[in-house]
Amino acid sequence: MIMRIFQVQTHPGQEEAFARFFHEIAIPLMRSTDGLVHVLPGAARSESPRDFSFVMVWESLEALKAFAGEDYTAAHIDPAEADLVAHRTIHHYDLVR
């Protein structure tokens, strides 16, 4: 299994708009994605109001590639979030049981 950690920092002033996108579109989308075994969405906190994240566990690299494409190391960006986000990071790990 592959663990994918995706972190986002919004542009200043875009926190509320991104929070709406995150809760209304991104979380439901990820929860309904084939091959995704577990998803843990992380919403912004008062000390870091622009930061959001997903920790995802994919059943296989093939399942992750089916979602993100062959270049799975690049962030999969929904057009609705493109103008809201200032910075993205993405990391992959082999899940340890």
TrEMBL record:
Residues 1-75 form the ABM domain. This is ABM domain-containing protein. Coiled coil: none annotated. Gene3D superfamilies: 3.30.70.100. It comes from the Bacteria. It comes from Marinibacterium profundimaris. SUPFAM superfamilies: Dimeric alpha+beta barrel. InterPro entries: ABM_dom (IPR007138), Dimeric_a/b-barrel (IPR011008).
